[in-house]
């Protein structure tokens, strides 16, 4: 991402058995590359990877085996979504991803986004589907909203993106 460098390299220095997992579509260095439909098993449970590109090509969301929660990264935020104006972003693709892969989950599914700038920790698919000021619109309205956000160029993008492509490893 453009605003931070992953801590994976540092974590692997402290716990050498840790394995990094990232979407194959991202093209980033990792221990395990995954794709849409792959499962990450832990104990007798799993999370399923769902491809949700649009913010970047490699965006994945992770759905619990019982669909009780979804980790949405930057694809779906609480009352928002990730920007689409750089690093492989595409507004129409993001809209389609969220509507086909996330808004098809039960309305009670808890949404845990990558971050929130207002201190909120979770939402639900039902709430986002009904009230998200961007994604509850038509696709055409969404694309227009995203084109007109006029966001500043991320200050650390030229350092963070290359570092993240190396999983945080120094050059």
Briefly, what is this?
The chain is α/β, with parallel strands linked by helices. 26% of the residues lie in helices and 19% in strands. The two termini are 17 Å apart.
List keywords for this structure.
single chain; 171 residues; alpha/beta; two-stranded parallel sheet; 5 helices
Structural commentary:
The chain is α/β, with parallel strands linked by helices. It is built from 5 helices and 8 strands. It has helices at residues 8-14, 91-102, 125-131, 139-147, 157-165; strands spanning 21-23, 32-34, 39-42, 45-51, 60-64, 69-73, 110-113, 123-124. The strands form 2 sheets. The chain has a 6-stranded mixed beta sheet with strand order 3-4-5-6-7-8. A two-stranded parallel ribbon has the order 1-2. A hairpin with an 8-residue loop joins β4 (45-51) and β5 (60-64). α2 (91-102) packs across α4 (139-147). The two termini are 17 Å apart. 27% of the residues are buried.
- The helix count comes to 5
User: Percent range for helical residues?
Assistant: 25-40%
End-to-end distance: 17 Å
Average pLDDT number: 94
Q: Please report which band the strand proportion falls in: under 5%, 5-15%, 15-25%, 25-35%, 35-45% or over 45%.
A: 15-25%
In spatial order, strands of the major sheet run 3-4-5-6-7-8
Oligomer: single chain
Give the H and E element order: HEEEEEEHEEHHH
Largest sheet: 6 strands, mixed
Unreliable segments (pLDDT under 50, ≥5 consecutive)?
A: none
Shape: globular
* Total beta-strand segments: 8
Radius of gyration: 16 Å
Helix/strand class: alpha/beta
């Amino acid at each position: 991402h453009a605003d931070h460098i992953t801590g994976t390299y540092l974590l692997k220095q402290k716990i050498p058995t840790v394995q990094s997992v990232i979407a194959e579509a991202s093209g980033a260095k990792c221990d395990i590359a995954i794709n849409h439909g792959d499962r990450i098993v832990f104990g007798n449970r799993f999370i399923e990877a769902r491809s949700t590109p649009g913010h970047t090509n490699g965006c994945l969301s992770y759905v619990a085996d019982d669909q009780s929660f979804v980790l949405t990264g930057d694809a779906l935020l609480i009352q928002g979504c990730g920007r689409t104006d750089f690093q492989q972003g595409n507004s129409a693709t993001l809209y389609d991803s969220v509507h086909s892969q996330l808004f098809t989950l039960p309305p009670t599914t808890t949404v845990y986004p990558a971050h929130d700038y207002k201190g909120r920790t979770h939402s639900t698919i039902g709430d986002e589907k009904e009230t998200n000021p961007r994604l509850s619109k038509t696709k055409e309205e969404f694309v227009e909203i995203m084109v007109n956000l006029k966001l500043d160029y991320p200050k650390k993008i030229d350092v963070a993106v290359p570092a993240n492509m190396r999983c945080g490893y120094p050059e």
